[in-house]
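Thread title: Can someone regenerate the structure for this chain?

I was given the following input by a collaborator and told the matching structure tokens would be attached. They weren't. Posting the sequence so someone can regenerate them.
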Amino acid sequence: MNTGSKGKILSGDGPRLATAEQRLRQLGIKLPAPPEPFGIYAEAVQTGNLLFLTGMLPTVGREAKFIGRIGAELDLQTGRKAAYLAALNALAVVRQHLGSLDEVTRIVRLGVLVATSGDVREQPKIADGASELLQDVSRREKQILK
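Best answer:
Regenerated them for you:
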């Protein structure tokens, strides 16, 4: 994630700029407590104006919320929920490290790993569970009110 100048986004209630933190509130999203590491690794490391995160799991604290493979124990919708939770955890770590999501100006890379079984080919749809959350929080285009 690229940090530096305050990244602003347009709100749905007019031309006024909204921050990422305001967007979370507008969407009714409450970030969980940052996940607890499962080892001695650092969850976030900043170098210059770049923040790198370790891989995030769909956990609450140290408890796995989704266990299994898409196409065997889990279905596509459950996989999307798991990706969404992992993205929430990533945002919680960013907020903990930077103090506010408003410090983020750009997400440079998002990697989503999906465990599948058999002939599953819908990994992009599962990853969209994370991508859509990040887009919703960082939406920059003007929304037209009718």
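The radius of gyration is 16 Å.
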